[in-house]
Amino acid sequence: MTPPTSGSGELVVVLAAGRGTRARIYGPWLHKALLPLGSRSVLSRLLAHFRADARFVFAIGHLGDQVQAYVELAHPDLDATFVRVESYTGPGTGPATSLLACRDHLDRPFTVTACDAVYDAPLPGPGENWIGVAAIDDPENWCTVQVDGTQVTGLAYRDPQGTGLAYTGTAHVHDVEPFLIGLESTVQSGEVVLDPGFLKLRRHGLVAKEVAWRDAGNEETYSAVRATFDDETTVAGKTSDLTYLLDDRVLKLMSDSGTAENLYERGRSLAGLTPTVTGCAGGVLATTRIHDAVDLDAFEPTAIQRCLEWVEAGLWEREVHDHAPDAVDSAVRSMYVDKTSARVADLLGRLPGLDDYSVVNGIDCPPIAELIESVASDGADVLSGAVIAPVHGDLHSENVLIDSEGGLWLIDWRSDFGGLTDVGDVTYDLAKMVHTLEFSTPVMIKHLFTIEDVASGEVRITHEGINELAASREAFWAFVASRGYDDHRVAVVDALVFLSMSPLYDEAIGRYLFVLGKVLLTGALDPRTSGRTAFDQVFGRTSGSDASSAAP
After folding, report:
1. Strands across the sheet with 277-281, in order?
2. Please, are residues 207 and 130 in contact by the beta-carbon 8 Å criterion?
3. What 3-state DSSP class applies to 281?
4. What pLDDT digit, counting tens, does each position of 436-484 carry?
5. What is the pLDDT of residues 403-421, one digit of tens each?
6. What 3-state DSSP class applies to 522?
7. Which of 54, 78, 485, 525 is packed most tightly, with the most Cβ within 10 A?
8. 3-class SS at 504?
9. By the 8 A CB rule, do 343 and 503 touch?
C-alpha cells in the first residue's frame, strides 16, 4: 500500500479491483475501465468530471498494473494513490472489500464511484450523504433505491419488485465512520455490497440525487454507450491494441507488454522523427501529441516525394552497426515467408475455397502455396536483396503527420522487423507506402470494392481511388527508380503486405485483400513484368498513361 494521501482537494475513490467478466469485449487482456469510448477510455472520461485539485484513491486488483500504468502515463498531474486489493474475486469480495482496503486513506468525506460509469453531466457536490440514482425500467437487473421524497429508506438488489431508481455506482459519504462500520458488518457476514454502509447513514441523513449516468459495465450497455462516440473512433476494428488521444499526449495500450517495450525503445531510437516517447509500463506506451497536424496528403504527388526524401535522409541513411548475416536472413524470411504463410493459412482455414480463384482480371494465377514457395526460393531476390537500415515498419500516408508549420512526423512505428528491433528492410517501408497508394485505408474500411464472379474459378475485382491516386503512384515509382531500389522486389513485398493483412479484418475485406495480393504477387514474380506496372496491369492501366505527366 502506498502512503496515505494528502492535500485539501475533494477525495474520490475509484473502485477498479474487480475482474469485469461482464465486459470483456476486447478479451481478458484489457481492464474494463480502459475500454474505448471514441478517442478516450472510459476511465479518462470519468476522471474529467472531477475538479483539477481532487485527489484520487484507486482500489486496484485485476490487471492492477495496467490500470496504474495508464493513470500515471495518461494523467501524470493527477494526485493519485493506488491501493492493492489482494482478494478481488470469489466469496467475501466486492466493493465493500475494496473500500475497506482503502480505509487508511479515507481521512475525510469522499465520493466513491465505479470505474465503468459514464457521466454526461457534473456530479452533485459534497456537503451531505447522498446516493446517485438514475431512472430504469428493469429493477431485476440493478440495485434499486427506495425513497421517501428524497430520503433513502432502503435498497433492494436485483428485485423484480424494486423501484425504478437504480444505484449508479456513485455516492458521497460525508459521515465516514458510521459508513465504514456498516461495511465491516458486510464483510463479516460474507456479503460484498455497500448496502449496510448506506443503511447506517440513514440516521445521519441520506438523500437520493439524480445523476446523468450511463452504465458501461457489461457488453450490451457498453456497446450502446460506445455507439454514441463512434465519430471519434481512432482505429477501427483492432482488438489487440488501442490508441487514445488526450489533450497533450497519445496513449497506446497493447495486449503484449513486450511489444510495448519494443515500441518504446524503437521510439527513443527514432528521436527527432517521431513525437517524444514519454514512458512505457504495463503494456501502455505514452508519447507527446502533435497538435493541429494532418495526415500526409496521398493525393498530392509532391507530398509523397517530399516524405520519401525526408525519410531516406533522416532514417534509412542512418549508420547502423553490423548484424550477423544469419540474424538478418532469419528476420527477412520470418517477415516475407513465415508470416505470410501463417496469415494465409489462417484466412483459408476460415474461408475454404478462396484460393480456387485461378483467374483474376484475366490474369492466370497459380495457387497461393506455389507463389509463396517461389518467394521462399528467393523469387525476384526477395530474401537475398534486403536493404538493411533503420526503418519505420508501417510507413504509409496515415502514419506521417504534417504539423501547422509544415514539419513531418512519423507515428505508429513497428515494434520490430522479424525480431530485429533496430533495423529492417527498406523495401518493406517502400512497400507499405505504395500499398496505400493502391488500395487506401478509407476505401478498404468503407468497403468501396467489388468482387464479381465471372465464371468457375474466374473473378473480376476493382475498387475506388485507382485513378485518383495514379499520379501519386507515379511519383512513388519515380523515387524508387531515381534511388536505384529494385522495383520488382518492392512489388513482391507490396503483394505480401496485402496477403498478410487479409486475416486481420472482416470476411469481405479479407477476401478482397487475399485476391488482390494473389494477383499482384503473380505479376510481381513474373520477370516479364516491370515491378512498377504490376498493379496497373491488373486494373487495365499502363506505364506512361496520362498520370505519368504529373510525376515530379
Report:
1. 241-245, 249-254, 284-288, 277-281
2. yes
3. strand
4. 999 999 999 999 999 999 999 999 999 999 999 999 999 999 999 999 9
5. 999 999 999 999 999 999 9
6. helix
7. 525
8. helix
9. yes
**In terms of pLDDT, which residue wins out, 120 or 323?**
120
The mean predicted confidence, pLDDT, of the chain is 91
pLDDT tens, position by position, 24-35 = 677 789 999 999
Q: What would the grid cell of residue 334 be?
A: 520470418
pTM: 0.85
Q: Which three cell numbers stand for residue 156?
A: 433492494
With contact defined as beta carbons under 8 Å apart, do 420 and 391 qualify? no
Bridge partners of residue 452, in order along the sequence: 460
Cell 488526450 appears where? 246
User: Which triple of cell numbers denotes residue 461?
Assistant: 475485382
Spell out the alpha helix ranges (H) of 377-506. Answer: 426-438, 441-445, 470-483, 487-501
Fold classified for 11-229 = Spore Coat Polysaccharide Biosynthesis Protein SpsA; Chain A (3.90.550)
Q: State the Cα–Cα distance between residues 439 and 445, nearest whole angstrom.
A: 10
Is the pLDDT at 366 greater than 60? The verdict is yes
Identity of the amino acid at 198: F
Provide the 8-state DSSP code for 123.
P
The CATH number corresponding to 290-550 among 3.90.1200, 2.60.40, 2.40.128, 3.30.360 equals: 3.90.1200
Using the predicted structure, report yes or no on whether residue 191 has a pLDDT greater than 50.
Answer: no
Query: 404-439: string of b/e by CB count within 10 Å (b at 16+)?
Result: eeeebbbbbbbbbbbebebbbbbbbbbbbbbbbbbb
H or E element: which one contains 79? Answer: strand 79-84
Range 175-211 burial, b when 16+ CB lie within 10 A, else e:
bbebbbebbeebbeeebbbbbbbbbbbeeeebbbbeb
pLDDT (tens digit, 9 = 90+) per residue, 226-264?
Answer: 989 876 655 455 567 899 999 999 999 999 999 999 999
Confidence check: pLDDT of 4 > 60: no
Confidence check: pLDDT of 18 > 90: no
- The residue among 203, 115, 133, 214 whose CA lies nearest residue 172 is 133
Q: For the packed helices 339-350 and 507-525, what is the interaxial angle rounded to 10 degrees?
A: 130
Q: What are the φ/ψ torsions at residue 96 (nearest 5 degrees)? A: -65, -45
Q: Do domains 11-229 and 290-550 have the same CATH topology?
A: no
Note every long-range contact of 148-156, with CB atoms under 8 Å and residues 24 or more positions apart, other chains counting.
150/207, 150/208, 150/209, 151/202, 151/205, 151/206, 151/207, 151/208, 152/198, 152/201, 152/202, 152/206, 152/207, 152/208, 153/202, 154/199, 155/195, 155/198, 155/199
Rg value, the chain, Cα = 28
**Distance (Å, rounded) from C-alpha 445 to C-alpha 235?**
11
**Whole-number pLDDT of residue 8:** 55
Residue located via cell numbers 482505429? 235
In which element (H, E) is residue 261 found?
helix 257-269
State the Cα–Cα distance between residues 347 and 351, nearest whole angstrom. 6
* Residue ranges per structural domain of the chain: 11-229, 290-550
